[in-house]
Amino acid sequence: MTRFRFALESPAWLRTISWKILAACIAAALLVSTIAHAELPVAVPAATASVLGQQRDANIHWAAFRLLELAIPLFFLFTGLGARLRRMCESISGRRWFWTVTLFVCAYLVLAALIALPFDFYVGYVQQHAAGRSDQSLPNWLKGEGVQLAVRLVLASLLIWLPYRLIARSPRRWWLYCTLALIPVAFLALVGWAVWVKPLTTTYKPLDDRPLETRIEALAARCGVAHVPVFVGGNDTRVDGLGPTNRIVLQSNLASVETPDQIEFTVGHELKHYVMGDNWKGLAIIAAFLLAGFWLTDRLGRAAIRRFSRRWGFSELSDPASFPLIVFLLTVLWLAVLPFFNLFARHIEIEADRFGLELTHQNHAAAMIFVRDAQTDIAPDWDTFFLIFQATHPSCAERIRFANSYKPWERGAPLVYGNICKSK
Ligand SMILES: [Zn+2]
Fold first, then answer.
1. Looking at residue 235, what is its pLDDT?
2. With contact defined as beta carbons under 8 Å apart, do 314 and 321 qualify?
3. Within a domain: residue 32?
4. CA of 349 to the centre of ligand 1 (A)
């Protein structure tokens, strides 16, 4: 009633000005509170003792796995087990070369998997359940392990004759021909892993969320992409496949762990991988590693065989019994390049964050995703060992600080990806 009387008794000009001032005050207050909420730098959570303990455990498990991967081939070489296994495969196959090579390599892979199984079970099943990170049943876990081994056996059966044939036919240049032959295979493997192998153990469905689909399509349209295949399934959000099989995969529970603004940033991040073909960079790294790895395996392998041929029971790299030696050398070389690979991967990931922020301006929402990660089971900052050998992504702390500070559009500064996607 008071408001009615005021409206009747006040002069018209005063009424207009009063309402305008009131409306302006309300709008300003709302704006200030929105800006204050959105622009307040998000604090990096402190590391808890339990998370630091988990990072230390992860380092120990990783180092132990790698030592095991190096110890198993050395065990086959220095006990002479490799040479005995090759003789056994020769007699089973009736000395037929192709079957001796295939049988030997398959037997080696099965025995190596059995030796590693107790450790795999402890780290991949017992520890994951104890930490509440997995609710997978034991039969499902065993099925996953079995499928992985079966895929390795099928690939080995199809491919292993090739390097051995090339080593025998062209001892000087086999490393080059082998790389050239395996690049298309790596391409098929990258595609096949996403399209055929992963769906054997995980259910993927096309995205069935119309509002989210519309939001994704609007983002992609600003980057000149008409249709992005989006699937939902599994435990992590990423871009799988290459070329025509390239697709964004959203983790199955994304809608329950992220707000719509956070999902928008997440999709913006993944769009960088999709639009800029980051998986092709992965293929290029594999090709470079194969070339350098096979060349060094040739040089180091021949030198090692000259030194230990009596003890190992073979005198040629073309002997199938050399397979554990090749596995050992490639593992050592992989460990040597791993810190550089991780450095490059972290660069790709922080650039995907930059792309996502430029596309969506969801700085606050993005920072809160990494706060959530840092509050669950990921340490806010990587320790040095983890950073060098395992960190394929920047730490949560680095990503929070980046999301807090990266806003070139506010200063009118040019965007790094301004020529790829239209700004907001
Ligand atoms: Zn990424």
1. 82
2. yes
3. yes
4. 5
